[in-house]
């Protein structure tokens, strides 16, 4: 049996027309949001079918490449959009409205494709940008902190990674993979970017979960994967030691708020998408209830239906405003300090982290309430598999278990009550 038979994938050829249609990337924020909505419209056409078929998203990644969305944050000199993170977050949200899996893949790519900005040197960041943008690469990452760290040994002029991770989002369909591990005999961590399609990266193809089914978030074994010292992000390639000014703790730890806000934004996109999808169904298919003593001719006249939609809409608007504010705070941190990483204080970093934590809490609470509550205003027939309304809740429920939101609430409580900023961790 061939690998194609064992692990079926969607066919990239189905989106080939968009390669020429989107031959130019947008030039401003509104243009990027328009492009993201166009991508979402394409994905929405068969989102239910693709979710149920559960194939590896080769075609969907090709669509993201054709659209230029993978390049939104990169520098213009290499063909990128050079947009700030707050615009990137809005684009993630738009795509996730139509397909949570692809919104998630886009979000993870944007994080991993900018990793060298945060933990690398200026030269490494520039070199990585050129590699990713000129080749229009999609980047995945095998960095799951709940597992044991990958082991890094030193071999001649390079470093060698070994180990395994239970989760590796997008790796199967990626061009490059971010690895992270600890050097043998030390507590020193190293990030490096390596080609995904090599013998030493062995994907388990075991992502068979209830939600986010098209993210290829299964396990991976890393077996003697090599990288040159020049690609050890933030390390001196001659002295083989970390550069303290580059890996300055407050700046380097921004990597975590960046990814946590990716989460919050695709959560919101999924929840907003659920409300929009449900509202179309209600208008077209839901029937008014004739046994309540106040019979209506149409479901859009039913008080309880109007009340629920209004309440969901208000809370999602508030959550979006919060997410936008947090995105602005994060973008300002990047813009305000530029290449001078040492100026970012613990207090500034902590303030950004608590805006992000607030989004995570609110998006989780509201998102789960909306994605389950829409069934109350669509009716029993909306539970049909052909309707596919369940995918929104399944997607959101799956990823909101990534790290317990209760700890974000506690963190925010200590900040609000005691004025304590959070200590950077792999999840804060």
UniProtKB/TrEMBL annotation:
Q: Name one GO biological process term.
A: L-leucine catabolic process
The UniProt keywords, alphabetically, are: Flavoprotein, Oxidoreductase
User: What sequence ranges are listed for the domain Acyl-CoA dehydrogenase C-terminal?
Assistant: 261-402
Q: What InterPro entries does the record point to?
A: Acyl-CoA_DH_C (IPR013107), Acyl-CoA_Oxase/DH_mid-dom_sf (IPR046373), AcylCo_DH-like_C (IPR036250), AcylCoA_DH/ox_N (IPR013786), AcylCoA_DH/ox_N_sf (IPR037069), AcylCoA_DH/oxidase_NM_dom_sf (IPR009100)
Q: Which residues form the Acyl-CoA dehydrogenase/oxidase N-terminal domain?
A: 36-128
- GO molecular function terms listed in the Swiss-Prot or TrEMBL record: 3-methylbutanoyl-CoA dehydrogenase activity; flavin adenine dinucleotide binding
Q: Name the PANTHER family on file.
A: ACYL-COA DEHYDROGENASE, ISOVALERYL-COA DEHYDROGENASE, MITOCHONDRIAL-RELATED
Q: What is this protein called?
A: Acyl-CoA dehydrogenase C-terminal domain-containing protein
């Amino acid at each position: 049996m061939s690998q194609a038979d064992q692990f079926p994938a969607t066919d990239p050829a189905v989106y080939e027309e968009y390669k020429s249609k989107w031959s130019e990337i947008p030039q401003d924020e509104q243009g990027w949001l328009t492009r993201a909505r166009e991508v979402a419209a394409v994905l929405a056409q068969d989102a239910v079918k693709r979710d149920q078929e559960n194939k590896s998203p080769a075609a969907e990644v090709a669509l993201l490449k054709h659209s230029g969305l993978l390049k939104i944050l990169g520098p213009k000199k290499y063909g990128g959009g050079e947009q700030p993170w707050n615009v990137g977050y809005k684009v993630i949200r738009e795509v996730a409205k139509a397909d949570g899996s692809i919104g998630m893949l886009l979000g993870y790519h944007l994080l991993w494709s900018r990793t060298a900005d945060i933990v690398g040197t200026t030269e490494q960041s520039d070199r990585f940008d050129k590699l990713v943008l000129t080749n229009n690469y999609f980047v995945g990452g095998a960095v799951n902190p709940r597992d044991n760290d990958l082991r890094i040994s030193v071999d001649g002029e390079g470093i060698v990674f070994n180990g395994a991770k239970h989760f590796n989002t997008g790796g199967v369909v990626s061009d490059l993979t971010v690895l992270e591990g600890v050097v043998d005999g030390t507590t020193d961590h190293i990030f490096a970017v390596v080609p995904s399609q090599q013998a030493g990266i062995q994907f388990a193809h075991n992502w068979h979960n209830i939600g986010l089914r098209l993210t290829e978030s299964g396990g991976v074994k890393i077996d003697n994967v090599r990288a040159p010292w020049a690609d050890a992000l933030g390390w001196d390639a001659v002295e083989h030691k970390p550069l303290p000014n580059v890996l300055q703790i407050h700046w380097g730890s921004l990597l975590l708020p960046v990814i946590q806000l990716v989460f919050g934004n695709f959560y919101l996109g999924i929840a907003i998408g659920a409300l929009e999808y449900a509202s179309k169904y209600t208008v077209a298919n839901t029937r008014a209830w004739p046994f309540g003593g106040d019979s209506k001719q149409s479901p859009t006249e039913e008080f309880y239906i109007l009340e629920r939609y209004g309440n969901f809409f208000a809370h999602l608007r508030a959550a979006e405003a919060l997410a936008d504010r947090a995105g602005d705070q994060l973008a300002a941190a990047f813009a305000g300090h530029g290449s001078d990483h040492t100026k970012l204080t613990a207090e500034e970093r902590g303030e950004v982290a608590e805006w992000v934590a607030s989004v995570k809490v609110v998006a989780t609470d509201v998102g789960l309430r909306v994605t389950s509550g829409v069934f109350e205003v669509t009716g029993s027939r909306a539970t049909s598999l052909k309707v596919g309304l369940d995918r929104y809740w399944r997607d959101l429920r799956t990823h909101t278990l990534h790290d317990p939101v209760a700890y974000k609430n506690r963190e925010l409580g200590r900040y609000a009550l005691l004025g304590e900023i959070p200590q950077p961790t792999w999840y804060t």
